[in-house]
Amino acid sequence: MTNLTLAEKKTLLEIVEQSILYGLQYRKPLVVDLNNCSAGLRKLGASFVTLELNGALRGCIGSLLAHRPLVIDVAENAYSAAFLDPRFLPLTKEEYPLLSKHISILSKPEPMSFASEEDLLQQIRPNIDGLILSEYGYRGTFLPSVWESLPDKKEFLAHLKMKAGLPPDYWSDTLKVERYTADLI
After folding, report:
1. Which CATH superfamily is domain 6-106 in?
2. Measured torsion, CA atoms of residues 43, 8, 75, 88, in degrees rounded to the nearest 10
3. What is the pLDDT of residues 5-61, one digit of tens each?
4. The pLDDT value given to residue 162
5. Which fold has domain 110-184?
6. N or C: which terminal CB in the chain sees fewer CB atoms within 10 Å?
7. Alpha carbons 48 and 42: distance in angstroms, whole number
8. Where are the domains of the chain?
């Protein structure tokens, strides 16, 4: 999906590290100098940064739509995942060495057309699709990597509804679902 080189992927992982370390010291995200970045990293991109501690989620923040250079998006999301995810307390210096860090580079979300929940379930591609579900101001997303913990389509969709603030058995003809793919770094 992405045309990033191995060197660019390595740079993005280094940016995650640097942004978190910078945040631990200065309580703000790393400022990235675009003049020192390749053209591929300067292109607009959407990313999520996921942090895990001992195999458990420790923070995950991202952008669903490309609206700034990818390298800046990654730096900002790394800081936010470490310090601003409302589900967790800010990351501590003691936790930092124990973290595993992952970057998901997202494709542009595409609206899905479906006539029923069963039709939607038939179209969902496990281990490929990330989904954005929205309805009347409720909204939630699951990255493709969530399939690892929720491999069943019905369960995946039910949990996504709950994440969006809806009941797990909720259905409406006005429900909107978009899908995207992600390259994991």
Report:
1. Hypothetical protein ph0010; domain 1 (3.30.700.20)
2. 120
3. 999 999 999 999 999 999 999 999 999 999 999 999 999 999 999 999 998 999 999
4. 97
5. Dna Ligase; domain 1 (3.30.1490)
6. N
7. 17
8. 6-106, 110-184
